């Protein structure tokens, strides 16, 4: 169904295996829409029954040029990284890892874990000069939470409704969970200079004449001063937004860069054991990088245009 607003488009996700036991629905990047602000990668996983399974098992792997943002609705994952951090994350808590020039981490469910796993992992493209800086990691247990009519709002990143998240990002950005507690529509203030998108993690939301269900992302475009949506009680939605990110990107495997040479250097460093360090308290063999394509990797703008 086409949205009433011509600046909007409903984007279907597609399934991608992550590690040995987890399949995610990848919602960004897509051919029609590569980014929302600096959000350049959106994976939604679950809800999965992991009572008799290991849950998430992603061994050590590298990142450059990005921040990972992890948010759980159900379950538990232990983050380990090459800075020495070992940090469990549970629902209502936020992990933000900044790769800078290079970091390695792993993500695993603990041996004794809850029976259901459900959440999102997102990437934020780092601008110059932050992408050339040092790596970092932050865990946030206390986030702004408030009730707005029949909607509970949890602010993950950025500012909304006079509240500000403690999470540090490097471009103007927004990430907020919206939980419907009743049938009354919610009306949220937005910034005209931001572009936005809405993801249904559970339940169904109605924006204008469009139904947003798990497995799709509604891109809302620029120029909105507010967003009115109705959702079934219990629905949990993720609102993403940000100032359009104008730096062209090369995204390949776990790296975000600006040129083929930069990506090739990061791959070579990972293969040689340089730059990224060793993940703390994780003896599993690191993930090998796939072979580079035989053609040159080209930078793309946020609209998907290729720069040669």
UniProtKB/TrEMBL annotation:
Keywords, in A-Z order: Iron, Metal-binding
Co-factor binding comment: Binds 1 Fe cation per subunit.
InterPro entries assigned: Pirin, Pirin_C_dom, Pirin_N_dom, RmlC-like_jellyroll, RmlC_Cupin_sf
Record flagged with keyword Manganese: no
Binding site for Fe cation: 61, 63, 105, 107
Annotated transmembrane regions: none
Domain of life of the source: Bacteria
Domain Pirin C-terminal: 183-274
Cofactor: Fe cation
PANTHER family to which the protein is assigned, alphabetical: PIRIN, PIRIN-RELATED
Family in the record: Belongs to the pirin family.
Full protein name: Pirin family protein
Organism: Micromonospora carbonacea
């Amino acid at each position: 169904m086409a949205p009433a607003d011509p600046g909007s488009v409903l984007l279907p996700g597609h399934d991608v295996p992550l590690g040995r036991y987890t399949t995610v629905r990848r919602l960004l990047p897509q051919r029609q829409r590569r980014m929302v602000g600096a959000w350049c990668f959106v994976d939604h996983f679950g809800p999965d029954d992991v009572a008799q399974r290991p849950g998430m098992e992603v061994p050590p792997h590298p990142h450059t040029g990005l921040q990972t943002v992890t948010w759980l609705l159900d379950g538990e994952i232990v983050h380990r990284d090459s800075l020495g951090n070992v940090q469990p994350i549970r629902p209502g808590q936020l992990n933000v890892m900044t790769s800078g020039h290079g970091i390695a981490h792993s993500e695993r469910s603990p041996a004794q874990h809850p029976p259901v796993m459900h959440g999102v992992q997102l990437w934020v493209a780092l601008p110059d000069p932050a992408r050339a800086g040092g790596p970092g990691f932050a865990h946030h247990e206390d986030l702004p939470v408030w009730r707005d009519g029949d909607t509970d709002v949890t602010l993950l990143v950025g500012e909304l409704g006079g509240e500000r998240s403690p999470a540090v990002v490097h471009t103007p950005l927004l990430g907020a969970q919206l939980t419907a507690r009743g049938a009354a529509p919610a009306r949220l203030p937005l910034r005209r200079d931001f572009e936005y998108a809405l993801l249904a993690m559970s339940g169904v939301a109605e924006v204008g004449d469009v139904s947003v269900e798990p497995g799709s992302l509604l891109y809302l475009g620029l120029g909105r001063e507010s967003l009115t949506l109705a959702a079934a009680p219990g629905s949990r939605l993720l609102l993403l937004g940000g100032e359009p990110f104008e730096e062209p990107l090369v995204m390949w495997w776990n790296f975000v860069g600006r040129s083929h040479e930069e990506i090739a250097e990061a791959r070579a460093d990972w293969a040689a054991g340089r730059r990224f360090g060793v993940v703390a308290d994780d003896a599993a063999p690191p993930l090998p990088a796939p072979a580079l394509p035989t053609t040159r990797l080209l930078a793309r703008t946020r609209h998907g245009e290729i720069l040669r």
